[in-house]
Amino acid sequence: MPSASSDKYTNSALRPGDVDPYPQRVVGEFLGTVVSNHSVNEEYKHVVLKVHEHALKAYAGQMFHLLCPSPDGAEVWMRRPMSVYRVDREAGQVEFLYKTEGRGTRGMAMLDPADDFNIAGPLGVGFKLQPSWKNIVVLGRGVGLATLAPLSQLAAEQGVGVTAILSARHPGVVMSKELFEGLGARTITVLDSDNSSAVENVEKILEDLIAQGRADAFFTCGSSRLLKLMQRLGKKHNIPGQVAMEQIMVCGFGACYVCMRTFEIDGKRVLKRVCRDGPVFNMQEAVGW
Ligand SMILES: Cc1cc2nc3c(=O)[nH]c(=O)nc-3n(C[C@H](O)[C@H](O)[C@H](O)COP(=O)(O)OP(=O)(O)OC[C@H]3O[C@@H](n4cnc5c(N)ncnc54)[C@H](O)[C@@H]3O)c2cc1C
Ligand code: FES
Question: For residue 246, which atom of ligand 1 is closest to its CA?
Answer without folding.
Answer: 53
